[in-house]
Design goal:
The chain has 3 domains: about 40 residues, no CATH class; about 70 residues, no CATH class; about 100 residues, no CATH class. About 50% of the residues lie in helices and about 5% in strands. The protein contains 12 helices and 4 strands. Strands 1-2-3-4 form a 4-stranded antiparallel β-sheet. Strand 1 and strand 2 form a beta hairpin. It starts with a helix and ends with a helix. The chain binds zinc ion. The site of zinc ion (ZN) has 7 residues, from helix 8. The site of zinc ion has 7 residues, from helix 8.
Length: about 240
């Protein structure tokens, strides 16, 4: 890390650009733990293998925001990005977070509290596995270590190994469902069902509180619930 910083600081482009130096020192470097992968070892990292998200944003920009724009210059495009596209995207992000939070809606009482204030897709994913776990006989779940368990497959003779992770290790189950989503699978919920000392709280906090499976409380606090309710009503019509 320090040699990479040295290389940058000695580069021609860096030395000739006081604005870059100021930004790098005062903004980027101060928060290096947020973007340097070295500081994120063992934390939830998502490899991005496609550019579908960027392509979709590009299509939205072209089809919904600049299609009828008269000013086709670069400054016209920047104006649309600054005044329209980015604020609209941010508002959508705030609204979707707020609409899913328990400050705005009440959760159905069969949804356990540990699934409250999570993105709807995560709640749906976990509820499906939680329901499927109820059909796994308790005899098919055995403990082989403090946080390691074996769960017999209901479809084959296989046994899956469930491990709830640690401060530095990712939780895992050897089943295909977990390998596909990296989210709690029915075998994990089957372990929760059988053992009183194991629960959702047995998952490491960095995993269960990860930004990928929680709502953004910061933006929820800033949202305007009155306008939200109107837009929600408008959408449901
Ligand atoms: Zn599993």
């Amino acid at each position: 890390m320090s040699s990479a910083v040295d290389t940058l600081e000695q580069s021609e482009a860096y030395m000739e650009n006081p604005k870059l130096q100021k930004y790098f020192k005062n903004v980027w470097l101060k928060e290096k733990e947020r973007w340097v992968s070295m500081y994120r070892v063992g934390k939830m990292r998502v490899p991005v293998g496609t550019n579908n998200g960027v392509e979709r944003q590009n299509r939205m920009l072209k089809e919904c925001h600049i299609k009828f724009q008269v000013d086709k210059s670069l400054s016209g495009l920047v104006k649309v990005l600054h005044k329209d596209f980015l604020p609209a995207g941010y508002k959508k992000y705030i609204d979707e977070n707020a609409l899913a939070s328990d400050s705005y809606r009440s959760y159905l009482n069969y949804i356990p509290p540990y699934l409250h204030n999570r993105p709807p897709k995560i709640v749906k994913h976990c509820m499906k596995r939680l329901n499927n776990a109820s059909s796994i006989p308790t005899d098919d779940v055995t403990r082989v270590g403090c946080t390691v368990f074996k769960v017999r497959s209901s479809e084959s003779l296989l046994e899956y190994e469930v491990y709830f992770g640690s401060e530095s290790e990712f939780p895992k189950c050897s089943c295909p469902d977990f390998k596909k989503w990296f989210l709690p699978c029915k075998h994990m919920f089957a372990v929760f069902n059988k053992y009183d000392d194991v629960s959702w709280n047995s998952l490491p906090k960095w995993y269960s509180d990860s930004v990928y499976i929680t709502l953004d409380n910061y933006v929820i606090k800033t949202s305007d619930y009155n306008s939200l309710k109107q837009s929600d009503i408008a959408l449901s019509r």
